[in-house]
UniProtKB/TrEMBL annotation:
InterPro entries recorded: PRTase-like, PRTase_dom, Upp_B, UPRT, UPRTase/APRTase
Cofactor: Mg(2+)
Source organism (scientific name): Insulibacter thermoxylanivorax
EC assignment: 2.4.2.9
Catalytic activity: UMP + diphosphate = 5-phospho-alpha-D-ribose 1-diphosphate + uracil
Keyword list, A-Z: Allosteric enzyme, Glycosyltransferase, GTP-binding, Magnesium, Nucleotide-binding, Transferase
Protein name: Uracil phosphoribosyltransferase
Annotated gene: upp
Keyword RNA-binding carried by entry: no
Residues given in the record as uracil binding sites: I194, G199, D200, A201
Cofactor note: Binds 1 Mg(2+) ion per subunit. The magnesium is bound as Mg-PRPP.
Molecular function, one GO term: uracil phosphoribosyltransferase activity
Keyword Nucleotidyltransferase: no
Amino acid sequence: MGKVVVCDHPLIQHKLTYIRDVETKTKDFRQLVDEVAMLMAYEITRDLPLQEVDIRTPVCPTKGKVIAGRMLGLVPILRAGLGMVDGVLRLHPTAKVGHIGLYRDPETLQPVEYYEKLPSDVHERELIVIDPMLATGGSAAAAISLLKKRKCTQIKLMCLIAAPEGIEAVHSEHPDVDIYVAAVDERLNEQGYIVPGLGDAGDRLFGTK
Ligand code: PRP
Ligand code: URA
């Protein structure tokens, strides 16, 4: 079974509190989400393989370690996933970025796909699917299924906040996928929103309502 890693570094918890706060306006919300994504990227890429290289310091020849040639791909789920892309790219500027457009039908809560554009070598890459809110888990599970249909095998899921229901749903469909979150909240409410959560991530990121 995939693991759930809660990235609970004090800086992440501090910033997440302001992200949740209803008083936080779009500009600060966007900046904080970006910063948390960068901090989480540090944890998510902890297992990247290294290779030894020969270098020279100004003093003498020596050996160093650099990230081995494993290729990374980021797959944000539109729209809200976009808010976490730049933060990850700051640490991994060579990653390619594919996009999957899904929205959650407000009545059925089922994901509806409307866009897909992926790198041509996506199946060769180690992928991080990015979706700030793991609520019912329907959107994330559908995005992962789509990637598996494209023959992708190495997939991690990165979220800001998850409901236990969302974790359960993703892991029952995709037990091979590790989930990285900044927090696991209490539950979903009747409208399928995470409690206490942060409200609608897309609307708060882009100032729509
Ligand atoms: C939100 C959020 C996730 C999804 C999570 O997207 O960004 O993608 O809901 O819900 P789920 O786990 O129950 O599927 P939304 O449909 O609001 O679209 P948006 O990102 O374009 O605002
Ligand atoms: N999507 C959001 O943006 N927030 C939630 O709490 C649930 C789904």
